[in-house]
Target: DUF4316 domain-containing protein
Amino acid sequence: MGLPSVCDISKCKALHFDLSQTDGKELPDIGVNELSGSVEDYEDFMQALTEVSPVPITYEDIEGEAKGYFHTTDHRIAIQEGMSQSQTVKTAIHEVAHAKLHDRERNQDIDAILDKDRNTKEVEAESVAYTVCQHFGIDTSDYSFGYIAGWSSDRDMKELKSSLDTIRKTASELITGIEDRLTELQKDRLAEQEQNKESILLIQNDDLTQYSLVSVVGMDRQELMDILSAMSEDDKLSIQAYLESKGAWTTEIANEDTKEFGEYHLDVCYNTDTEELVDMKERKESPANREAQLLFGSEDRFGIYQLKDTEEARDIHFMGMDYLESKGIAVTKENYDLIYTAPLEEGTSLEDIYTRFNIAHPADFRGHSLSVSDVVVLHQNGENTSHYVDSFGYREVPEFTKKLMAEHTKEQATVIDETTEILSEIAQEHANDEPDRGNEVFLVNYNEWREVSTLDFEQNYFAIGDPYADGDFRLLHLQNQIKDITPAGVHYDTYEEAAAALYEAEREMANMPFNKENNIGSYMVTGRTQLERIMEARQLQKHMDIENDKVSYYVIADLSTWAENSPERSKLERFDSISEAMEAFQAYRGKDAQYSDDKARTTFGVSVHGIEFDVIHVKNNENVLSLDFTHSSEAKESKHFMDDLQTLSDSIGIDKVRVHRDMTPEEVKDFVKQRFEHQLKQGGLDDISLYMSRFDTFYEQGKMEKLMPTANQKHIEEDVPITEWDNPYFEVKEPEQMAFSIKDKFVSIQTCTEGYDYSVFDTDYKLIDGGVYDNPDISIHAALKDILEDFGLSGQDKRISVDYEELMEKTEAVEREHLNERIREEVPEADNVVADFKAKTEELFNGINGQTQDDIEQTVWAYLQSKIDEYEIDVELVDVVVSGSRCRGLEKAGSDLDVVVEYKGREHEDDLFNAFNEDGLMIGGIKVDINPITEGRTGTLATYLPGVESYLAEKQAMQKASALEAISEKTVTLTVAECGEFHSLGEFHENIASVEEAIAVWKSIPPERMNGIPSIGINIHTEGTEHYEDVEMDILSGKVIDLEVLDYVPDITDDPKAIEVIAELIDKLPDIEVRGSLEKWQAAILASQIDQLSYDYDTYQYQDTVEDREAQVANITEDIRNGNTGYLNDFLNAVISEGVREGITDIFGEGVEIDGSEAVQTARRAKELLDKLAEYKPLAKVEELTEQNYNMIDNVLNNGAEKKEQEQTKGRISIKKKLAEKKAVIEQRDKAERTSPEKETEKKSQREM
Model:
């Protein structure tokens, strides 16, 4: 044998592939939670599985995440309700496998069952389910692979390997059993279907004086045609008996003696006179009828014509219009066949049709792809147009339309002539039968009949020319006969309704006998007198409706199916009450969310004086207003209808409006440009940039006329938002809040003081961005439009309205969970969290009436336990912790005492909150706010308190930052420039400390300099900021100081030092012209400083008496400007007096330095303000203010101006009231000190800032 030879091959290439170079089905993800999708013959499959299952299968709502279970005691299987078909099938097979393999009572090998652990059982059951589902073509791999892997103890999957035989056997048994049952079920269903076959057969003579309408059960249309074709002469004597001999069941529905009417769709018609047998479906689908439906049908349609394969047409296949015109060849109907016709959906353009029939044409389309030389005929709004498919775009061919219409007009004339002869004979027979009626019974003359027929071509063509082309023939025919005596806008849904209406009209208004002869022809030959009476009555009724302003309503569940003659067709429901109509509309409207197309669905309509029109269509889950009512003078003049329109807007809401307009010149140019670009590309050019760059020139020269849009193409229908529509008819209420789902985001918006508060979330309800749109002057819709554009979203993007409150709940829950998750990651052991929090509170807590934090927590615990006992609440208290601002010493005057309590129990947190806080517990005069929390909702104290700590830390940091910002010093200096307009030209001096120095520098600039006008400016520098952030502005320019411009520079007018510098500059330059006055800013600054002193002096009383601080400052400012400062002087003097007294106590009683005494510092501030108040020069004359003399009467200020006091705001009286109270206190204290000189002076309690 020998050893095998081995050789080395150097530099051998190793092949490898990157993942991006591979394709194929993606590997299943492990861990898919649930399957989706449907199962073919689902009901039969589940029926078969239920029959082969060893135990019953039921459906129920299972708590938790389980999708099903096998109950080993009750011996039954439960499946979760509401799952997808594939998930339900998979779960049912899984549980059936458990029942077959792991039921101790049913399995003989009990030892084998006991030896299996849970992992093995689950792996076996899921493997059986996967195998059975795969056999029947149900892919569960995404779910089953992850499930099996999850129940396997290791990567080797020993449970699966040890059970392969069991899995094969059980799966085989189930597959065999299910297939057998499915076969039996399908046989039963085929037999049932065979028995349920039904066809409608009409047996008639030529003039319809004898007919029989027969229901044939057990035969479809084709079988009925075949059997009737084979009839012998004897069989024709009794066709019903003949059909029953062939295995059918026959029932006569109606005959010539029947007086009750119904509506039936004919399948087969047999004429006993001519022995003609007609297949109604084949006749309806004949080219003539298809073409008639296209040209004269009530719905919009389109048709595709393609050239015949003839000698004449062979040379012009796929030739453009330019070629035909050069050869003098016309586009004639004779060379074309109608290949395809279908409904024209709203919004479909010719370009859409071209694309559809080149990329994804319908399965029943038998022609070649839409190409050059084809013709597309459009039937829109009752008009027909023909369009030749050119090398680029379409060319309208009116001659094609004319010839097409001419053929059918000729056919119509022939039909009318034949019909007139028939009606004449019937009329004569009718007159002979009733000679006593005289000339009341006569035939409408030929010319009148032709005129009526021409006007109502569609109805007469189908009803008379081809009476059985449409299954609804009898209904259409009758409606045509009574159209002149039917109120405008009224339509009958069934033949029975239409016939009953005519029958009642004839009986009640003319006493005309109703007999079998009248069924067929007499409706068209009613006497002139009879017809005039009926029409007069109808006209009188119409006038009565107008006088009474009669309005009624209708609702259609789905307009897209309403026109179809199918079992699924929506009915038109009528209402006399708008509230009932709106209720029905809203009920149907809620079901429209499943549709995403542009079809009009739920429809709300109105009938005004008998004229009907749609008002609201639901499209894309939005309420779209139809403007049909604007074309009706009755509607616009009806107060009842206009009030209803307002009601609809308020109650239902209108999102958009369907408007009709023509293209703008810019849109026309864009349209031509796109066609030009498309034509160049179709021509095979590789680089079209040169041509496109010259498009504007070509267009302006008029060289693009052939590419211009047609009149139809220029007409645009679009749905615009209601807020963008010029609405003269009703008011639209602006909602206070809205929420939408748009693309992959949720957007919410609500009104707020500054404008609109908005938030944008992702699909997981996580906040992406938010803020305040600070323009309250525009509508909420306009604000939303701007916000959407900022996020790259368009107003044209589909928006689905969602419940605002529900969205907020979901987003708050996600935010809360995110916070708890972050806390769980950052929080150490729970016990340490609570202990550390309480220890820090003990260190920073400000006692309340001598009570510590621990005292308060014990008091609250006792109170809560009493409430629990009182209401017999089944909860257990875990712990009570003082929280909120007081636990860190950050409270303000009036702050509540916040306490959080953790409990265990099933009671809701909100219910406990109401119970615990209903009594308004107070401790030391402070309200206690009790917040209950529990695990599984808000969380435990260990997870909750870190969030409190973070919040309080942020609050403390913000307070420190505010304090630092408040004490930031500002430096005011002056600048001098040789050129005020451009400081860089000539001399420029800055950082000048005094006004005198600035004036000296300014005067030192030689007047002969030509650089510009010298100026003196002001500069404000804030400590800690960059110099380029300084506020700088020229005050003096040339010989003028312009103060009016300061209105636009609040950074200067709000700075007292800056105003002082400007005032000094004015005083030092008396010869300079001054425009404006500093007085209003000086007064405002002084008022703000006095108000701040009032707040700092007694914060508690300030907060109790001042509701609007801005109004307070405004009122003080006005008083200062008017010289009405008496009460301010008194207030400042009182503060100085008390400050001096308390300062003496601080210095001599406590040994505090003068500068360290808070009372002394307050007195100094008051003295400075008093001096400024004295220096201020008001605009009003002093002698005009003498009547404003404030006197104290019983410690109450009274200036005699009662009317003025009534006009002042609530916050206005605070300082005056405070002054009166303070004077009374001072007087009482002075009196007590005079009567008790030996009493020691006591220091006031510390004020809170």
Summary: The chain has a mean pLDDT of 75. Residues 398-433 form the longest helix (36 residues). The longest strand covers residues 611-619.
